[in-house]
Amino acid sequence: MHVFYTPDLNFEENVYVLNEEESRHCSKVLRLKIGDRIHLVDGIGGFYLGEIIEDHPKRTKLTIVSKEKDFNKVAFHLHIAIAPTKNIDRIEWFLEKATEIGIQEVTPVICEHSERKDVKTERLEKIMVSAMKQSLKAYLPKLNKPQTFKSLISSVGSDVHKYIAHCIPTEKREIADSFKREEKYLILIGPEGDFSEKEVQIALENGFVPITLGKSRLRTETAALQACFEINYLNR
């Protein structure tokens, strides 16, 4: 069944009109008609079943047949701060796959060795919306504006389990070694040139635990996805 993103849908509503873009997609592209049913997600946990009662190409009207709050809500919060890659396609790939697997928050972090320092979040958000619909999720991950490494480090709350994945040959731990279920987690993933020694030192001084994501040398986006998978797996 087709899924539509409806962030302005109030949970108390029993009738809803798709915006012009979604109406056109519903009526002209998918050619859905009166009586056809679609799923709606609001990005904050609301999952709805709607039935078309007016198939207008600019304002398709639906009656809400059923609704559910906190659809497939998880008991943990995963925040990955990732240095934008030189090739933005790789970050787009990560955001798509991480949204499908399960992530709650992403922050592009600008580091000393970052090759890309500007990120246009509008396109990235569209990719995440598409992945949310594709994977039948009702929560849209929060995509923050880019932050510098230092500003991110200083803004982390005391109730967060903090990890940094770096390539400098020092002692590191597996995530599972210090893991607690159903908590808040922040994982720092560096750029292609890795974090600088100074950045690693700052992170350690601020309570970040150095971790390994395996014996292979991973690309930035692959490392981030591996971390995402591990947290989801350990919370299963």
UniProtKB/TrEMBL annotation:
Keywords: Cytoplasm, Methyltransferase, rRNA processing, S-adenosyl-L-methionine, Transferase. InterPro entries: Alpha/beta_knot_MTases, PUA-like_sf, RsmE, RsmE_MTase_dom, RsmE_PUA-like, tRNA_m1G_MTases_N. GO terms for cellular component: cytoplasm. Gene3D superfamilies: 3.40.1280.10, Hypothetical PUA domain-like, domain 1. It catalyses: uridine(1498) in 16S rRNA + S-adenosyl-L-methionine = N(3)-methyluridine(1498) in 16S rRNA + S-adenosyl-L-homocysteine + H(+). CDD domains: RsmE-like. Pfam families: Methyltrans_RNA, PUA_4. Residues 76-228 form the Ribosomal RNA small subunit methyltransferase E methyltransferase domain. Its EC number is 2.1.1.193. The keyword Transferase applies. One of its GO terms (biological process) is rRNA base methylation. GO terms for molecular function: rRNA (uridine-N3-)-methyltransferase activity. Belongs to the RNA methyltransferase RsmE family. Specifically methylates the N3 position of the uracil ring of uridine 1498 (m3U1498) in 16S rRNA. Acts on the fully assembled 30S ribosomal subunit. NCBIfam families: PRK11713.6-1 (NF008702), RsmE family RNA methyltransferase (TIGR00046). This is Ribosomal RNA small subunit methyltransferase E.
